[in-house]
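Technical annex B. To support the medicinal chemistry partners, we prepared a structural model of the target in complex with adenosine-5'-triphosphate, based solely on the information shown next.
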Amino acid sequence: SGGSGSGGSGGGDAIKIGVVTKTDSNPFFVKIRESAKAAAESEGAELIALAGAFDGDNEGQVAAIENLVGQGVKGILITPNSSSGILNAIKQARDAGVIVIALDTATDPEDAVDATFATDNKQAGVLQGKWVRAALGDKTPQLAMLDGTPGGTVDTFRHDGFLEGAGITEGSSEIVGQADTNGDQTKAQTAMENLLQRAPGINALYTINEPAAAGGYEAIKSAGLTDQVTIGSIDGSCTGIENVKKGIIGATVLQFPAKMAEQGVQAVVQYAKDGTKPSGFNDTGSQLVTDKPVDGVESKDTTWGAENCWG
Amino acid sequence: MPGAIACADRPLATFPLNSHVRHVKDIMNSTPTSAVVTPGQKSRSLLERVIREPLLGPIGALLLAILIFSIITPTFLNPNNVSLILQQSVVVGILAVGQTLIILTSGIDLSIGSVAVLGTLVAAQALGTTGPFVALGATLLVCMALGAVNGGLVTVLRLPPFIVTLGTFTAIQAATRLFAGSQTYQVPEGPLTFLGTSFRIGSFSTTYGVVAMLLVYALVWYALSQTAWGKHVYAVGGNMTAAKLSGIKSDRTLFSVYLVTGIIAMIAAWAALGRIPNADPNAYQNANLETITAVVIGGTSLFGGRGSVIGTLIGTLIVGVLRNGLTQAGVDSLYQNIATGILVIIAVAVDQFARRRTS
Amino acid sequence: MPGAIACADRPLATFPLNSHVRHVKDIMNSTPTSAVVTPGQKSRSLLERVIREPLLGPIGALLLAILIFSIITPTFLNPNNVSLILQQSVVVGILAVGQTLIILTSGIDLSIGSVAVLGTLVAAQALGTTGPFVALGATLLVCMALGAVNGGLVTVLRLPPFIVTLGTFTAIQAATRLFAGSQTYQVPEGPLTFLGTSFRIGSFSTTYGVVAMLLVYALVWYALSQTAWGKHVYAVGGNMTAAKLSGIKSDRTLFSVYLVTGIIAMIAAWAALGRIPNADPNAYQNANLETITAVVIGGTSLFGGRGSVIGTLIGTLIVGVLRNGLTQAGVDSLYQNIATGILVIIAVAVDQFARRRTS
Amino acid sequence: MTGSAQGKTPSPYALEARGLVKRYGSVTAINGADFELRHGEILAVVGDNGAGKSSLIKALAGAIVPDAGEIRMNGERVVFHNTRDARAKGIETVYQDLAVIPALDIASNVFLGREVRRKGIRGSLFRQLDMPRMRKESSAHLADLKIGIKSVNQAVETLSGGQRQGVAVVRAAAFGRGVIIMDEPTAALGVKESGQVIDLIRSIKDRGIPVILISHDMPHVFEIADRIHVHRLGQRAGVVDPKQRSMSEVVALMTGAERPTDDERAGRV
Amino acid sequence: MTGSAQGKTPSPYALEARGLVKRYGSVTAINGADFELRHGEILAVVGDNGAGKSSLIKALAGAIVPDAGEIRMNGERVVFHNTRDARAKGIETVYQDLAVIPALDIASNVFLGREVRRKGIRGSLFRQLDMPRMRKESSAHLADLKIGIKSVNQAVETLSGGQRQGVAVVRAAAFGRGVIIMDEPTAALGVKESGQVIDLIRSIKDRGIPVILISHDMPHVFEIADRIHVHRLGQRAGVVDPKQRSMSEVVALMTGAERPTDDERAGRV
Ligand SMILES: Nc1ncnc2c1ncn2[C@@H]1O[C@H](COP(=O)(O)OP(=O)(O)OP(=O)(O)O)[C@@H](O)[C@H]1O
Ligand SMILES: Nc1ncnc2c1ncn2[C@@H]1O[C@H](COP(=O)(O)OP(=O)(O)OP(=O)(O)O)[C@@H](O)[C@H]1O
Ligand SMILES: [Mg+2]
Ligand SMILES: [Mg+2]
């Protein structure tokens, strides 16, 4: 089985693996890329890392898959930009005998790929939401939401999960402001500054990732409202954990990108060796990290976080 | 040879172009309906007419890139891989035709990609309630309407195309997301994905999208070089005042270019659904920069009035070849970006060098 | 009044400008060192010299926007909010000065944001091993070197600025990510974040970054309008051939513009660290489009040779006011984008209208 | 567009203007100018630099829309919104700044705005241009002027100043049916080439088409003009008969050193 | 840059060229042209359109670099890589296409490339331009030409064709010290204004500065030139003495209808 796409030529029998991330810019994907590189090296495999040009660059990811298949890889690890946008290319790759593993983001339907190694982003959002709500105590939430890119799969899962966890419905008056930040700190800061001008009573802040949280915090700090606003976030980068420790972010949800990448690479190598295909959704887990634990949400402290963070 | 030679009243035996002078005089004396042409035209084959001298640079750069990649990677010249490069170039390649037209009029279209993306969503949503052909018709209408908005603002209000299309780009992109509820829409196989269908010519397999792209190029090449409309496009872009004084309906020409670009965006939207049967409001965000790059690499002047659509095709292919070839060579995307940045500059430098040689 | 009047050999009592003619003749007869000037100049105050007629349009658009937002929102004219708008404009505003210079030479700089971003990372990383002033020096060197690369490719190889800076943009962005491992680097408070420090003038609090921005504008305004270098920049952008024939060191002028833009990018990098004390390889990705927008809204021609840096300041503020004002008015971000797109077009339309009135 | 003159006896004027005004900001380029062109005549327009000659003929050619005043052709009121309107009435113009497209070849420039399509379906359906024919015709016309153009495929930007002017002259001469206006058509031309343009103007007159010639070249003007319109300070100072006035008198009129007679001032010569 | 002529007796020529060649692709614009300009003389250069006159003087002014041939000033070999090199030797040129910057005002155009800075620290340290002085000087120079320019703050693009030419002429006349070259300086000028340029050229000669005048206006040429260089087919056909040859003979020489004498061919007049 397999190998039909490789053309049989090339030097030696080093297994070639492709990894296609959403972009090259997000440290999360950089962590995936680097962990995959390291894992591949230790397995004696060769890894080619490609990426889309921006969040939503389906064409770029499709081209990357096509070019990797043409190059003769055994398996492709991909963090799909949109859960359904690149299914054709994935199917063609699988038809050519390449196994495709989704990392971080599941495809829709899930069995479009051989296997998925991912965080449950919705669940991560729920954790953030629950914690923020509990930390607010009796106060009525006055929530600002610093979203990522409108329409991104992960962005939507986290956003929806947060609202579910916080017990707030979309469109409710408890949401006093929302802005798209593309997960970018500068944009997040400008957006938060402007939101605070309009709604100085904001007491809860959802952020799509830790850079957005840092940007939001800068704005809150210069407005002198640090005591008033509870900030939640998702990612688990070491900078983020550090920020939790400093009290800049109230709590963050730690993800495990290195686990996803390592398991993915190992699965491809396994397949190349004996044809065993991985399958199904493999949750790599998410963990709330905070130094201010609340009742009803299981959490770990920043010391644990600093040991398990990435980047 | 000095241009003054036709003034010579006496034969100048030592003057090489004298025979040409006589020839011109013969024409003057011949009956006006005779088919005598000046020597310069006689020797022009179709190929020469399609590939004009200024294209030698881009073609050279493309061939050089192909040569290098076929040497350093074993897979690059596979028919499959060549077909892939073409398929990957389809959407941006089609959009780049519209961009060429607009840049020829000394404009620029930053909205072109967003129009096509909105087109894919209109098609996908209309498909649910109507048939595929109505959906395609609706897409065409929407894309043309947006082209008309751009064109109207540029011609009637005389606003700078950069600002107009930046404004519509921003507005259309946001409107698309609202319209789509930030969702993506799957499109089932059918007429809407037709341009993604493969077929074989001998052992070479390609898609109808590639054919559509080549057709668009051929059509617009024909319109630009063989019709009065084309001359007017060059005239309007080369010197608007002179074009007006020459009695060209410059506003109408300008407006028509934006309308045609709308139609081209619709074809690109169709091809995009063929390539990825999933309408996504976040797709093709860099199409404006990518198309402009293809146009400029192809030797078209950003100041208008000079250039050709064939150059743009070559420009598109150069970018496609670079991306594919670098992947074949096992280069990671960050290094690919560095390499692409440098190679694009080199490609244009080769062009400049070739041009200075021939002029 | 016809321009021919100075030719009049006899007094024309009915002709209103006749006194002016006599005036000019007086000048001719006066000693060359006398300080007599033509009436046109006498009445020009400093303000008039700074705010030239073509700026009335952008200024009108800005005032209109301010008026509308101060009516529909209660918070807009708060000193705090005004200060915020200025602070939010600092980085793009400074970069837009460099962009203006390059556009005046009929170029374009797509790399300007990426140079500044690389600058922030160089500063942040150098800070770890050296002192803050060495770090700033290193940043200046890197930014100037990149400006020199752009300028060298444009002047020596005569490549189109669009392609050169697109190439360097792509390459620098990728290189920055590699260099930083896509990590962000926190910068502790100190000289590197100095431009983020606030101070008060009366009840109005602002940052040194705002002051730096205004200083950069003032300096470049002076250089453009009061020095020979400025005249040469306009000449090179207005008509390169004529500039060359007039004996201007056109290549040197062009190169110097790219170098100065490098310096300005360094100042922007410094201001960026003041605003967000965290060097992020992914920041300011849209700076190229944003700066070009500010320049064009400010009335500078993308074809070079016409425009002013004061217009760019107003253009920057228009964008800042729109974004802030729409948020104050409670408009959601997608609707904000739609509104911004449309409002930017309206701002430029107001400008065009004002211009047609005055010409 | 039809004015009150309809139904009267045919007008003696091919082209006529009354009280034209055109302002550019604070500059009044045309300041209430009158103008009359008789059928079949060659009318020279002379005047100092900046007198407003080009502005005047631009108004007559539809290139600028006057702020006030009216224009009549054959006694009938006409309004030109653009050069196309004027062209439709048979008015062809050589502009002082030539109005050629540098990057286009000579043949395309000559036929710009009135391209010839191929015969048959290639022309009607596919709208293909008959480039060979346009090339042949342009090169025949240009050969008449003997300005030494090598090939009509050349881009206009590669031509010398005089050759460029030749292209503009040929374009107007080839297509004018009603009135041909030439704004300093020989300014960049050599002695021989100027002579050929003068011959060309004469042959246009022989075809019965009136010509307006703006020129600073007094010997040429006196050689060829039937009447001379003297323009000064944005107005018509008067119209003189070259057989009754000397060159130096005309120059004096241009500068205002001499006064026109009442008939001259009223254009009755 | 110093050639073999050094140390010899002083050259009779202010500017001199031998065997200049310049090709544009397949067009040879200068085809082995010789050229001599004597000290203090006015040398007219005449020739058909496209004969290569502009190309020749562009080579002399450093605007194009010839493919072959050599140029000497006062007998000394010079190589001009650009117009700055020629300017540094005192050669000033009015180009046929004027070389003005449309968007800049008149004063800035006149002083372009040699701006005057303010006195004192404002000029030396802050490098501020002395715009009032530049304006005053330009308007004084322009007033001499009487081309009716209202204000030197006007952008050049708002001027009439003739006024624009005046600006270019003034610029060259004001700054030339070695040689002044004028390529058809009166082409767009009116009778009076042309006369003023001719007077200006005479006054330049009176200052002892030699002038090269390209013109198609034979009466002007014969009025003012000390010698006439006839250019034909990219070469010097000969140099004639306007006192010995008639206008029609010179025109005949330009077209090749008449042959120059051996002395004329060798430039020995
Ligand atoms: N577009 C314009 N904007 C401002 N002023 C203008 C414009 N066009 C012409 N003028 C002014 O109008 C006046 C008349 O110009 P016009 O070109 O008609 O003169 P002209 O008689 O043709 O001169 P010439 O003999 O030099 O060609 C001049 O003073 C000129 O500066
Ligand atoms: N940049 C160029 N590219 C190609 N050909 C050129 C170029 N410049 C000049 N030529 C050609 O060189 C020849 C000589 O041109 P040049 O301008 O020197 O003639 P000229 O004697 O000044 O004519 P005119 O009296 O019309 O100004 C012409 O045939 C012209 O077409
Ligand atoms: Mg004129
Ligand atoms: Mg010439």
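Notes passed to the chemistry partners:
The interface with chain B takes residues 24-29, 31, 47-52, 232-234, 255-257 of chain E (CB under 8 Å).
The radius of gyration of chain E is 19 Å.
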